[in-house]
Specification:
By secondary structure, the protein is an alpha/beta fold. The protein has helices at residues 16-27, 62-75, 124-128, 137-140, 156-165, 185-192, 290-311; strands at 2-12, 33-35, 49-50, 60-61, 79-81, 87-89, 95-99, 102-111, 115-117, 133-134, 148-152, 171-175, 197-200, 203-211, 215-223, 229-233, 236-239, 243-245, 276-278. The strands form 5 sheets. Strands 1, 2, 5, 6, 7, 8 and 19 form a 7-stranded mixed β-sheet that branches. Helix 1 (16-27) runs parallel beside helix 2, helix 1 (16-27) packs parallel to helix 7 (290-311) and helix 5 (156-165) packs parallel to helix 6. The radius of gyration is 21 Å and the shape is elongated. Bound molecules: NADPH dihydro-nicotinamide-adenine-dinucleotide phosphate (NDP).
Length: 312
């Protein structure tokens, strides 16, 4: 199917960045089309309490907050679709955005596709993700009360997850593949000083054992120094090994950095293609907060509006 309408703006992605862009673009009368993607509402829909978003002094549940964002966007004329964009063509104008065989045309595109948790790439992930393996301590920590679990990674995410998980778990072991940590000193010290946390370095996870009925039972570790393989018993594995920006289908048109994040021009959301803007985690590997994503979503809508004004 081809929709011949040339839209003013199409927003791809529906986390805080995309939906804030939709609110602002809606209020600017751009009648934005939002393709929400495979995870409508974005990463916040897999968290529980959001306690640091200004305006919610008692906290708010992630999914509820994203519903509020969406309702606000719709109030100003945004049309939101639970569709996943598979391809874009930015080689000519109007830009083309594809959902499978369906083609949509737009004068501007706002990219807010976010980032996804990085995986180890183990076969066991297919079976055990959600059954003992998790990428989100805030979402799943509660299910590991009094259990022995591991957190893999050596950055701030791993330290934060490990510290958080000690609220529930009997013991948390951080497994890191090197001796040097990317984590900030303060987060690493906090983990080191926590009596419920052990840290193992120079270990890679080769395999995770378990089944969907009983969960995880152990992991197979390989030592980076002597190459020895050992079995380590545990009941849960949390991944804190970073995120990958969702730019697979975009990177042939857009300038991205060495980690795949879209490069935006200083003090703006402009990309290397005039009329294409990027906001939120897909262009920010540093702050990665709901509020910063929302802020950049606002910027993207304003940038798109100005761009369209100049065309006229
Ligand atoms: P980072 O990229 O900083 O760290 C990722 C960690 O995972 C590294 O230790 C890396 O190992 C390890 N890793 C990556 N791939 C693999 C793999 N295949 N197998 C084993 N280990 C792997 O990501 P984070 O998510 O920790 O942090 C991202 C950004 O967010 C940072 O800027 C961080 O400061 C920030 N952040 C801040 C927080 C806070 O201040 N409260 C909380 C969380 C994140 P190696 O070191 O060997 O590369």
């Amino acid at each position: 199917m081809t929709d011949k309408t040339i839209h003013k703006t199409i927003i791809i992605g529906s986390g805080p960045a995309g939906l804030t862009a939709a609110i602002y673009a809606g209020r600017a009368n751009l009648k934005p089309i939002v393709f929400e993607g495979n995870q409508p509402g974005g990463q916040l829909t897999i968290t529980t309490d959001v306690e640091n978003f200004p305006g919610f002094p008692d906290g708010v549940m992630g999914p509820e907050m994203m519903d509020l964002f969406r309702n606000q966007a719709k109030k100003f004329g945004a049309e939101c679709f639970f569709k996943h964009v598979t391809k874009v063509d930015f080689s000519s104008k109007p830009f083309k955005v594809y959902v499978g065989d369906e083609e949509f045309l737009s004068e501007t595109v706002i990219l807010s596709t976010g980032a996804s948790a990085r995986m180890l790439g183990l076969e066991a992930e297919k079976d055990l993700m959600g059954y003992g393996i998790s990428t989100c301590a805030t979402c799943d920590g509660y299910f590991f009360k009094d259990k022995e679990i591991v957190v893999v990674g050596g950055g701030d995410s791993a330290m934060e997850e490990a510290s958080f998980l000690t609220k529930f778990a009997k013991k948390v072991t951080i497994i890191h593949r090197r001796e040097v940590f990317k984590a900030s000193k303060i987060m690493l010290e906090r983990a080191r000083n926590n009596p419920k946390i052990d840290i193992m370095v120079n270990k890679s996870i080769l395999d995770i054992k378990g089944n969907q009925k009983d969960g995880v039972s152990s992991i197979i570790l390989k030592d980076a120094i002597d190459g020895k393989e050992t079995v380590f018993n545990c009941e849960g594995v949390f991944y804190g090994i970073g995120h990958i920006p969702n730019t697979d289908f975009l990177s042939m048109f857009l300038d991205v950095d060495e980690n795949g994040y879209i490069i935006t021009k200083a003090d703006s959301t402009r990309t290397n293609i005039d009329g294409v803007f990027a906001c939120g985690d897909v262009q920010d590997s540093h702050y990665r907060q709901a509020i910063t994503a929302a802020g950049s979503g606002c910027m993207a809508a304003i940038d798109a509006e100005k761009f369209l004004e100049n065309l006229e």
